[in-house]
Design brief:
about 35% helix; binds beta-alanine; alpha/beta; three-stranded antiparallel β-sheet; binds adenosine-5'-triphosphate; six-stranded parallel β-sheet; pantothenate biosynthesis; globular; binds pantoate; about 15% strand; Rossmann-like_a/b/a_fold
Length: about 350
């Protein structure tokens, strides 16, 4: 049966629609996004459609997860392209027997999501927040202090509005998946958290909405993060278990790339800073010295691609002309070995 996609801007009409679905024993898989959709998002929607009759997608750039000096204002917005991609996915899904499809988009304005106060990005600002500590203060949380408070808060609101049977998150944001699982467990939320694999470009770069800001020169250097993590994973697969043995090749790959770029003239280089390379416990994200092979571990990292110093005439500098710094994250799960 061909079904239209409903776009909701308000909570109540969405709830009414959701209740109708529930009354007819349909199941909802929910994919929260901030838009600027790419194959990473689409693969989560595909997975959700395989496991539910109806898929709800939210498109909302949540201000409270951006720090005051972060890139909220420049976050890419591509509404029409996003709708075209979702329509194309539905066409693909409808050709498949037994598959669900995307039936609702939730695209609220901020007053709908934060009805009481203007939302704050200040650490000590007022508001009703969900905090998951210390998990949310480590790694990404150390660099972006309000990030996981904002993510957990908006996801709690979205889950309360959509009431999905299942929620879908990408492994690319691995710490986010750990935070969401913890929130669902600790608050007894009646939903199942499903994680989809990281979708990558052919050279290994993890897909991200922010990649449009990279341009060719920074794009080529940015792939260093996935290479560094791969080098570390290789050590684990070769039987190494100690932090130093696993992480040194990752640090070497990233440091030599930094030095290589620093030595180039400003007209040719794309400078990069490493924020962290981590080997952490999969449940707590605390750093570990030794991998317990029965449990595995999470290798993750974050780098910052600095603005191009001397963009060249005619060069593909990406959206923003190479002036926007771009933070890239990536991770590899060291799988348990029995
Ligand atoms: N490459 C990817 N593979 C799989 N899932 C992804 C990928 N990139 C993002 N996702 C997932 O899509 C969901 C929405 O993410 P979001 O809209 O922030 O996109 P994004 O590309 O992660 O943006 P950015 O990297 O700029 O923060 C999240 O669950 C995220 O983990
Ligand atoms: C989960 C999320 C949509 C919350 O704003 C965001 O953090 C994201 O896109 O990963
Ligand atoms: N994908 C995580 C959203 C953010 O970086 O703000």
């Amino acid at each position: 049966m061909r079904r239209a996609i409903h776009t909701f801007r308000e909570v109540q009409p969405l709830r009414t629609f959701r209740k109708e679905l529930q009354a007819s024993q349909r199941t909802v898989g929910f994919v929260p996004t901030m838009g600027a959709l790419h194959e990473g998002h689409i693969s989560l929607m595909r997975q959700a459609a395989a496991e539910n009759t109806d898929v709800f997608v939210s498109i909302y750039v949540n201000p409270t997860q951006f720090g005051v000096n972060e890139d909220l204002d420049s976050y890419p917005k591509t509404w029409q392209e996003d709708m075209d991609k979702i329509q194309a996915l539905n066409k693909e899904l409808r050709a498949r027997d037994g598959s669900g499809s995307i039936t609702a988009i939730f695209a609220p304005i901020t007053k709908v999501m934060y009805p009481t106060l203007p939302p704050t990005s200040e650490i000590t600002g007022p508001g009703s927040f969900v905090t998951i500590t210390p998990l949310g203060s480590l790694l990404e949380g150390a660099s972006r202090p309000v990030f996981f408070r904002g993510v957990a808060t908006v996801c709690m609101k979205l889950f309360n509005i959509v009431m999905p049977e299942r929620v879908y998150f990408g492994q690319k944001d691995v710490q986010q998946t750990v935070v969401i699982k913890r929130m669902v467990k600790d608050f007894h939320l009646d939903t199942e958290v499903k994680i989809g694999p990281t979708e990558r470009e052919a050279d290994g770069l993890a897909m991200s909405s922010r990649n449009v800001y990279l341009g060719a020169r920074r794009r080529e250097v940015g792939v260093v993060l996935s290479r560094a993590l791969k080098a570390a994973e290789k050590k684990y697969l070769q039987g190494k278990r100690l932090r130093a043995d696993i992480l040194w090749p990752a640090n070497e790959v990233s440091t030599s790339k930094m030095m290589e770029q620093d030595d180039l003239p400003p007209s040719k280089r794309a400078r990069v800073e490493v924020d962290y390379i981590s080997m952490a416990d999969p449940d707590t994200m605390e750093e570990i010295e030794v991998v317990d092979a029965s449990k595995g571990a999470i290798l993750s990292g974050a780098i910052k691609m600095l603005p191009l110093e001397e963009p060249q005439e005619g060069e593909d500098c990406g959206l923003g002309g190479g002036a926007v710094p771009v933070r890239l994250i990536d991770n590899i799960i060291l799988q348990p070995i029995n």
